[in-house]
């Protein structure tokens, strides 16, 4: 039974306080842009053939194989734009034991490596920290022991090294890894530290999906560059305050670390593995032809059957795999992967006053181009069925009728909170404990104000916003405008339901058809005013894990909590 009660907190005064704290008096909350506006190209499109297929031509090692590789985090520089090279952070990797082909670099990119393993393999990653700050490695989406999960409490000092050892138990799919030191995740990831783990197994191989050079990982990221081609992480002044609140948004779209990517393809099907490795950018991915997208997999691997959707929402941390058949295209055709316009996630008039980012969330832009350069004969056809997805039944949950609530909201001090709390490295609250083996329903609510703050403000009148003219219609007119991609460590979950507040519904309608919820997920986009229920079974490992927002500025800003499986 889904509760229809929505918490109409008295948010108006709170919003006023937040913005007046930023020196903003009046604001409009009209979201920018219309939906499904044709994408416009970014300026300065110089065609670069991305050297990304070469990395995909490797076969996975045998099942039950052991793989040990070093992962050295260090500062280096990389040519990205014409002119000066860009100072980046990057992992260098080398296989120490096992199949040397299991770990491959992404040529010419700060990203990588790509690690290919079969389910059942035992992996040891040896992190060497050559940065001047502590770092660690989180294996996003992989269910690994808590001590190998790369949590903020377990960091590796500069000059030190540490091993992460785990067995790969996940379903075939696309996973990734990145640093997770508290307060520094956003900057380290932004400056380049991220790689992929691709899991396969014999059942998947038997499906005969596009493989080798037709199996292409594509890491989507946005970056901001200064006049000397250097990454701008958090800008100064008002723009910097915007970055801290909204998350860092860049106006250049990079695919596998390259701008303006034009990928040559032949007239045959491809498997595209997309990761949104951005800090705060949320893509609404579509084809420039207007054709629907065929989805093979989401975060937790292959779906039970391919799904056809008009577009795909891809929030930071999420992965999606597409079947892209260029068979019907002609040599000479160029087909773009674009991000379409959507609503609900920008601050509208406030953004204007504070210096709206050049490419705000919700704007339309090109992501990359597929240039059909040669004919090919392919006998591959899209399988009608992929891999079984065992449905978790809500009725089996220990809390089927009373989901465990997680309220994602801004707290008193303009900080980011979950259930009114910010991250505490050594604390697990009583209501953050889970019994090993239990099935639970969790509810992620995206609200404007944290519960404590909202309670304290109950009964306050609305004169503040009335006096300052920020009064679109109605009591709940002071809308939440932040999306929170919620990531849970140590599990994969299934989405049970989504419900959205009436005041946010119109904006939500511009994204809802791209929320691919039918498979296993580890990161779920929770739009403004939305409540998402998920069900999961805590049968991986005992110990401390994390739930946090994967907008990395929100995460570093405290929107993260432990939970303990015990
Ligand atoms: Cu967030």
Enumerate how many helices there are, as a single number. 9
Q: How helix-rich are the residues, as a percent range?
A: 10-25%
Count the E strands: 32
Sheet-strand content, in percent, reads: 35-45%
Q: Specify the biggest β-sheet.
A: 7 strands, mixed
Shape label: globular
Q: What is the CATH C-level name of the largest domain?
A: Mainly Beta
The CATH superfamily of the largest domain appears as Cupredoxins -  blue copper proteins
CATH architecture of the largest domain: Sandwich
Give unreliable regions as ranges. 1-61, 454-477
What this model shows, in words?
The protein is built from 9 helices and 32 strands. The strands form 6 sheets. The chain has a 7-stranded mixed β-sheet with strand order 13-12-11-15-20-17-18, with no helix packed on it. The protein has a 6-stranded mixed β-sheet with strand order 1-14-22-21-16-19, with no helix packed on it. Strands 4-5-10-9-7 form a 5-stranded mixed β-sheet. It has 3 domains: 12-31 and 388-565, Cupredoxins -  blue copper proteins (Immunoglobulin-like, Sandwich), CATH 2.60.40.420; 50-206, Sandwich (Immunoglobulin-like), CATH 2.60.40; 212-374, Cupredoxins -  blue copper proteins (Immunoglobulin-like), CATH 2.60.40. By secondary structure, the protein is mainly β. Helices cover 11% and strands 35% of the residues. Strand 17 and strand 18 (301-309) form a beta hairpin. Bound molecules: copper (II) ion.
